[in-house]
Design brief:
Mean pLDDT: 94
CATH class: Alpha Beta
Oligomer: single chain
Number of strands: 19
CATH architecture: 3-Layer(bba) Sandwich
Structural class: alpha/beta
Distance between the termini: 19 Å
Shape: globular
Largest sheet: 10 strands, mixed
């Protein structure tokens, strides 16, 4: 059974997913109020690499992760870091994550993501056509390697993605050809793989523009509102923030790594764990024309303004834990041999944010056990790329009652 189109919807969370959902709801004439405990892009949306790269959207539980081994994962210098601590929820998440680190599970999850990936850039185009934020800067993503064997692993992954229905176009380059394209690459680079047809944005600027677009379209975006509870009353939903209670026709929970706190009472049992990523920016002699990727080091670099943003690591810790300087140091030393002309000791904007990760690597998008409570989150590293298409498809479900086929694999009650 479906409900009538709601007149007033609360969107909890002002990251890419929440703001995109709010904007598309406004285009359907729905009155929207966005509530965030801190403010726009305060979570994982601000300091990430800003890639709009559906060709790279793959499930996080990857058989390659297990090659590190458990001993490596507890090292602060490891690209995938699990600090040892007595945390039953984290242990349950890691057990589910490891179960999905198989080739069959990875291929199934990849197939599930194809529908979103095919529409991802069109979501940005729809926003740009309405004057929101621009479509992003078109560029190849150039992966650089210190060994040809490492390059072979990425090429094999791209070929598997093609076989699974993804659109992937790449070109293999010699080290000299890669440096010819991007002089910031050092002599340690022996080969490169250019992934064509991708885009990138400055995520902080983009999210600020999207928030203003929501306001300009008549929506509200309220900062500093920490939602503490949601009560479904059948025909309406109460949203509580401190001592204040406000009533809406429907609610969208898009709180990133905190999604489970509000969604669990409505039947969402999948654990959403913060997979924290770090970034900082440095000056470079020659700014690259597009993103650079160092798969062996698991580090991504993006030109942001007149500096190079360097991002990496996957750290399974609470989302509000303080920044760990050891992780910044590990990224710096990992990428130092691969770059030239970058002043890695002149770091600014050191940042950590909690990407919302699920054990099976698939987001949670759709209706909960309560007909008027929806969730949108768990996109892992791909919330920026998949934010607009998530907002489009969820808006379709909320306003018509019918679930688009692309959302079937992401049922929050699975």
């Amino acid at each position: 059974m479906t409900n009538p189109t709601p007149e007033r919807v609360a969107v909890i969370g002002a990251g890419m997913v929440g703001l995109a959902t709010a904007w598309f709801l406004r285009q359907r004439g729905v009155a929207v109020t966005v509530l965030d405990r801190v403010g726009v892009a305060a979570g994982s949306s601000w300091g990430n690499a800003g890639w709009l790269s559906p060709s790279k959207v793959v499930p996080l539980p990857d058989p390659a992760v297990l090659r590190y081994g458990l001993r490596a994962m507890v090292s602060p210098s490891s690209p995938v870091y699990v600090p040892p601590r007595p945390d039953p929820r984290l242990l349950a998440f890691m057990a589910g994550f490891v179960r999905h680190c198989t080739h069959p599970a990875w291929r199934r999850a990849l197939t599930a993501l194809v529908g979103l990936n095919r529409r991802a850039l069109a979501g940005f185009d729809a926003l740009a056509a309405a004057g929101v934020g621009g479509p992003g800067t078109e560029a190849d993503i150039l992966a650089a390697f210190a060994t040809t064997a490492d390059a072979d692993h990425l090429i094999a992954e791209y070929d598997q993605m093609r076989a699974g229905g993804q659109e992937v176009e790449y070109e293999v380059l010699t080290g000299d050809a890669a440096r010819g394209r991007e002089p910031a690459l050092s002599d340690r680079v022996v080969t490169g793989v250019a992934l064509r047809g991708q885009r990138f944005i400055n995520p902080g600027e983009y999210l600020a523009a999207l928030a203003e677009a929501v306001r300009g379209a008549g929506g509200e975006v309220r900062d500093g509102v920490g939602v503490t509870g949601i009560r479904d009353r059948g025909t309406v939903v109460d949203v509580q923030a401190g001592a204040q209670v406000e009533t809406f026709d429907a609610v969208v929970i898009a709180t990133g790594a905190w999604l489970g706190e509000l969604a669990r009472p409505f039947g969402v049992r999948t654990t959403v764990q913060a997979g924290r990523g770090y970034s900082f920016s440095v000056p470079v002699e020659k700014l690259p024309s597009g993103p650079l990727y160092f798969p062996g080091q698991r580090v991504a670099c993006t030109p942001v303004g007149d500096r190079l943003r360097i991002a990496g690591m996957m750290e399974f810790r609470p989302p509000n834990a303080p920044l760990d300087p050891r992780r910044v140091h590990a990224i710096t030393e990992a990428v130092r041999p691969m770059l030239t002309g970058a002043d890695l000791d002149a770091r600014e904007d050191e940042w950590v944010g909690g990407r919302p990760c699920t054990p099976d690597g698939l987001p949670l998008i759709g209706r909960t056990r309560a007909a008027r409570v929806f969730v949108a989150g768990g996109h892992g590293m791909w919330g920026i790329t998949l934010g607009p298409v998530t907002g489009q498809l969820l808006t379709e479900l909320i306003t018509t009652g019918y679930r688009p086929a692309e959302l079937a694999p992401f049922d929050p009650l699975r």
